[in-house]
TrEMBL record, chains A, B:
Keyword DNA-binding: yes
A molecular function (GO) term: DNA-binding transcription factor activity
This protein's name: Transcriptional regulator
InterPro entries: HTH_LacI, LacI/GalR-like_sensor, Lambda_DNA-bd_dom_sf, Peripla_BP_I
Organism listed in the record: Sinorhizobium saheli
Gene3D superfamilies (alphabetical): 3.40.50.2300, lambda repressor-like DNA-binding domains
Keyword Ribonucleoprotein: no
Amino acid sequence: MKLKEFARQLGLSPTTVSRALSGYPEVSEKTRKRVAEEAVRLGYRPNINAVRLVTGRAGAIGVVMGRTGEFHFAEFMSGMAERLDGEDIDILVSPTTDRDLTDQVPLYGRLATSGRVDAVIVHSPKPNDERIALLHELGFPFLLHGRSETDVPHAWLDIDNESAVRRATSHLLDLGHRRIAMINGPEGRTFSLHRDKGYRDALEDRGIPFDPRLVTHGHFTDELGFRFARSFLEQTPRPTAFVAGSMMTALGVYRAVRSRGLVVGRDISVIAHDDVFPYLTADNMVPSLSATRSSMRAAGARAADLVLQLLAGRPATEIHELWPVELILRESTGPAPREAQS
Amino acid sequence: MKLKEFARQLGLSPTTVSRALSGYPEVSEKTRKRVAEEAVRLGYRPNINAVRLVTGRAGAIGVVMGRTGEFHFAEFMSGMAERLDGEDIDILVSPTTDRDLTDQVPLYGRLATSGRVDAVIVHSPKPNDERIALLHELGFPFLLHGRSETDVPHAWLDIDNESAVRRATSHLLDLGHRRIAMINGPEGRTFSLHRDKGYRDALEDRGIPFDPRLVTHGHFTDELGFRFARSFLEQTPRPTAFVAGSMMTALGVYRAVRSRGLVVGRDISVIAHDDVFPYLTADNMVPSLSATRSSMRAAGARAADLVLQLLAGRPATEIHELWPVELILRESTGPAPREAQS
DNA sequence: GCTTCGAGCCAAATCGTTTTAAATTTTTGT
DNA sequence: ACAAAAATTTAAAACGATTTGGCTCGAAGC
């Protein structure tokens, strides 16, 4: 059923019908109601592609998905989906096999200029991210999930990684730990730098010297968690506490600790960052995992919301949101063992 | 830059330019080459929405994403992305907050009739799935990831869950286990039924009676893995082996076993299904996890491929793929403890 | 009582392509 | 060298909506 035919059946012009359905003011309330009802009854719905052509709007928010199987990603998207349900806006996932961020830049360019999306969400930026520069240059609306240090004005949503890690580290220091190892995220990403800063600042507050041998970087996998933790535990003196970048990392750390015949929460304390996954909960681990916590799903929902605001005309420069992170203490953190204290 | 302007600059008609770029045969090779080169040089790209309007094609494959944070989902999509890279086809994720499958049916209807996608992928079907019936009725192309028992002809891709679980169970029986508990997926889904059948058949082959107290159903979370395993271990006589539905479930099972002071691989054997996640590998678990294994990412890539074939005109009735599942034995399975053997 | 105004509706232009059907040019056969 | 056939190219008609600008008609202003 097309507009023309539908309008004919109603005895109205296509113009009026279109306006009635779009909620324009110059159509009488009575007519609008009739049109709306008949549209449902006769099953008329505007052809989306015609609408897109004439309005220039795409009705979708773009997200680039790399080949790294980011488990966070699904949660974030699920949050977006939650917010977008009923909004008549979809999520368009643009495939890429490029591992390196820089190689992905042209893809963002194509996505922005292709007319397939109205805005994009940029994830895990570097401090000086080419994607941001490009999108700004193109004048294309985007929301940054994370932060960068560029002076290009833009909308962003981030969690306070720095403060989270600073508090986590401070807490370990309070418990008497002095050699605290950190398994951070991929090198070069802003959030990794923020976490690094939080870690260093906490040490500095107590006048404890920073030891580069206690910090590593890498993707959030159980494998790296295990390998890094194993190698840390071979040091003498060995660290008595770990700050882990993710739940998966924490799983690896737990295993490494156990494989050395040590006990998490007694011999070795562990704090990790928890994005709150429905399928893997810090509270259920044994021992339960102390964590800095912030819901990835909530971030996705809010991100979608902010993008909608952006598209509605709210200036990007107004959209800056820094979320606090909870620190939840459970059984995996305890006083530093006596013999290890200085 | 629009077609008209671009054509004018080339001294050709819009028609010829359009044909040249779309690779139609009735344009000379020389002209085609010139057009292609100039398009790159001048940066001309057809307006996607105009193309969509006139061709009726959407250039996207639809996927419905519920609010259950399925960690498999990201891997599957990532596989799709891998195959779709360079194809000029996107993945359109349609949000829903409806938990129940039946409630999602109208969404599939809207998606199919909205013109936003050319085909959809339907996940985790029930044996008699309303979504399949609807899509068939609408004559809309779709690929089923999983299987159903409907007589509606349709394309599908599935892994051989039944055989996988039968072999896993048989192997445990070979090792002398007699009380084998199974933590299956959500009730009602075809794959859960297939796994159930594989489990029962293996028992039947040895003349071992089926005990319903040894089977549970639920989502794939560490929490359920833990809770179910705990409660199984409270039975007397307790099971000596577990077949777990997922890696997350297995994590829970490991914890439950340890929390009872038992040792995985010695006191209790565990086999789980592994979808092959980059961030959580069966081989790295301690003890390493015996698993039935099939790559979710590969399935996503193949699914995208099959959808492409479907859209290219290959009959849906020809597209049936049943993937074998590897059984990989590691340290988590061992002989049944003496005292437990009958 | 005549003009002005606004509410409500409509005809036609527009968005930027693809594709049908026809026109032109080039090649081929004799 | 000429007609017929084949190879290129093109003008114009879709595709299905939104939107500009204009039209009609009754109410309000004076």
